[in-house]
Amino acid sequence: MSTPRRLQDWAPADLRRALAGQGIRLRLPPFVVHIRSPIAVVAEGLSALYPTNECLDPADSMADFHVAVTPRWRPLRPLCVFEMDGLRPFTPLGRDEAFAFLEWGLNWCVTGHAHHWVAVHAAVLEKQGRALVLPAPPGSGKSTLCAALMLNGWRLLSDEMALLDPATGQLTASPRPVSLKNASIDIIRQRHPEAVIGPVARNTLKGTVGHLRVTPDSLARASDTARPAWLVFPRYEAGADLTLTPRGKARALVEIASHSFNHHVHGRAGLEALATLVEQSDCLDLRYSRLDEALAWARSLEALQ
Fold first, then answer.
1. What share of the chain is helix, strand, coil (3-state, %, to 5)?
2. Which CATH code is given to the segment(s) 118-176+214-302?
3. Burial class (CB in 10 A: 0-12, 13-18, 19+), 106
4. Where would I find the H helices in the chain?
5. What stretch(es) of the chain map to CATH 3.90.228.20?
6. Secondary structure of residue 104 in the 3-state scheme
7. CA–CA dist 162, 132 (Å, integer)
8. Residue 60 to residue 190: CA distance in whole angstroms
9. Orientation of helix 12-20 relative to helix 40-49, angle to 10°
């Protein structure tokens, strides 16, 4: 059996040529994505953040999503557009945001079209088969905490979406780069100089955005599911001491349903799947400002059997 070709096996010029032409098929578990783009920063981001992901032969593989980030001309400010199957669902963005646009567009593809799962806007990490689910709105410190946990031994399932199988109650991994914004980029760089952060897009609607490469273990174990154990609603508050407050199950269910992209698609089964997740989990509100305190709390979870 031949060794699978990885993205890191491509010479940079060959990768740029392939992306600008017929595109490449990249395994992004649990999906295969066909990606095209002639924009250099897209090739740069893929090389930096997906080096060990498998590239598939288009003659022998199907793709779940066919996407492209293509240039659009505009005086004074070059733009780009995201496409899926020829559809352009978003307003064009600046050309230097092209890689971030690809990542955001892929999130939309999964949450809007992969209805095998109930999808919830949440980070998910795992230890010893048990999953920590972190649903939170933008600005809550979710991704910063997620990145720190991943870089301190937790396996990343996803920074953006919990994929809950309504038939089994298990969470499916979709390990892609962690989206860091503004001060979080420097915080992670200072704490983990070895961490790889891809192209940084500035002056976006979300501020400054960079993506953090997932750990090798997270990618290697992408086929391993995890059972929900903790449902924690994080909130960053500058200067605050870490506090943990139990959250009632009914309130937790209302909140997590508000973060779900598609439970309505599944009808009653979707809401029941979320209710089961809540019932199986310890539900908490977490307020924090210092990552060291949050990591110490996470280590206490690891000790629980």
1. 35, 30, 35
2. 3.90.228.20
3. buried
4. 12-20, 40-49, 98-113, 142-150, 183-191, 216-220, 249-258, 268-280, 291-302
5. 118-176+214-302
6. helix
7. 10
8. 43
9. 120
Cis peptide before 166 (omega within 30 of 0): no
pLDDT in tens, the chain (305 residues): 456 699 999 999 999 999 999 999 999 999 999 999 999 999 999 999 999 999 998 877 899 999 999 999 888 889 999 999 989 999 999 999 999 999 999 999 999 999 999 999 999 999 999 999 999 888 888 999 999 999 999 999 999 999 999 999 999 999 999 999 999 999 999 999 999 999 999 988 889 999 999 999 999 999 999 999 999 999 999 999 999 999 999 999 999 999 999 999 999 999 999 999 999 999 999 999 999 999 999 999 977 65
- CB of 211 within 8 A of CB of 178? yes
Locus of tokens 């001309």: 73
Contact 78, 98 (CB under 8 A): no
